[in-house]
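Batch manifest, entry 17 of 40.
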Amino acid sequence: MRTTFRRAGAAAALFLLLSTVLRAADYTLDVEHSNVQFSVPVLGVSKITGKFMRYDVKMSAGKARDLSQAKVVAVIETSSIATGSESWDARLRAPAFLDAQKYPEIRFESRRIRKVKGRWEAVGPLAVHGVTKEITLPFEIRGRFDGPHPDDRLGIHATLAFDRREFGMAWTGNPEAKVAGNTVTVDISLLATRVPSKR
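Output type: structure tokens
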């Protein structure tokens, strides 16, 4: 009888260990099916839109079903900005806006992931134009990330709006800066592919 109990206890412990390991999933970015886009008002009556062509996002779902241990690190190459207009690309890379030569990267790193009223949020520092501020990035996940059989692909979608002046992109008397509005809206759509476990 003791042997039976011991075996049952060992089996239960092994099951718990395996379920914990199986819940841990890392994901890599599928760049061909992802987009980081933005829009900025122009002269109060129109807007300029564009996207970043080069970026990297590393994601780990962590070991908890509620994503409380998840981690996201995103790095965008500032000079890869593309609006479809060489003139606008040059303006946005210049010191009057992103100053791509001095600040080659935009970086976000989550410090915590939480679910508030049914909506996911990533909280952490966002570094743009040499200024770092903590932001709350709301996002949604399409696909299953937990359990013994997580989906091989996840869709992650987020929208963030911020005032560029908060990141030092405001210049009194600069006509180039006055052309664009202050609110920058960023739309993020990522396709993430699960990394096979090394076992």
